[in-house]
Backbone:
């Protein structure tokens, strides 16, 4: 696997996960927690997101097959869903609106799912199956979650350095890239469905 392949595997997942965009929501949800409880919630969140994502890599295509769906169907539907997620983040800044009373359950919902591993990440995981092996995608997911863990672990320092405006700018750029990636998914999906169309 060359460097270009590594980037084409890593970047879509990183952009879909958008840990810098989720960072202000994480700080908002954990502002009242002690350092020990914040650490516990973060560990639970990353573990939950990892288990859900890793299980979805092999099981996602099986679910599609059971429903009689073709990969192109999912590419178009997933692309539309990812496009909505990307546009929501660009236009309405939805991630910044998350309000939740901090608790251990917050580490699972809404932080692990759907903020970390949501529709955009799950759609991307399945679409990457066309080009990469399950092991490669799983390793990339774990790497992205590890980077997210470091970002959230250093959340206070990062927010002081970047500021709220800085994280918003990065999040908007990531959401714009995600929207462009979604358009590509739709284009590829429609192309693959051409032989089946009347």
Residues:
């Amino acid at each position: 696997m060359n460097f270009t392949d590594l980037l084409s595997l890593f970047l879509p997942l990183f952009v879909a996960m958008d840990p810098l965009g989720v960072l202000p929501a994480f700080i908002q949800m954990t502002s009242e927690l002690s350092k020990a409880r914040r650490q516990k919630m973060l560990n639970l969140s990353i573990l939950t997101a990892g288990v859900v994502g890793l299980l979805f890599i092999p099981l996602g295509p099986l679910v599609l097959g059971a429903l009689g769906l073709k990969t192109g169907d999912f590419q178009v539907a997933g692309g539309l869903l990812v496009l909505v997620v990307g546009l929501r983040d660009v236009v309405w800044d939805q991630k910044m609106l998350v309000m939740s009373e901090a608790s251990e359950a917050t580490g699972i919902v809404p932080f692990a799912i759907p903020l970390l591993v949501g529709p955009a990440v799950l759609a991307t995981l399945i679409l990457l199956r066309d080009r990469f092996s399950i092991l490669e995608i799983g390793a990339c997911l774990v790497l992205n979650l590890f980077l997210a863990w470091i970002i959230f672990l250093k959340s206070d320092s990062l927010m002081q350095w970047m500021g709220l405006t800085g994280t918003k700018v990065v999040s908007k750029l990531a959401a714009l890239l995600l929207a462009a990636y979604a358009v590509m998914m739709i284009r590829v999906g429609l192309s693959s469905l051409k032989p089946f169309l009347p």
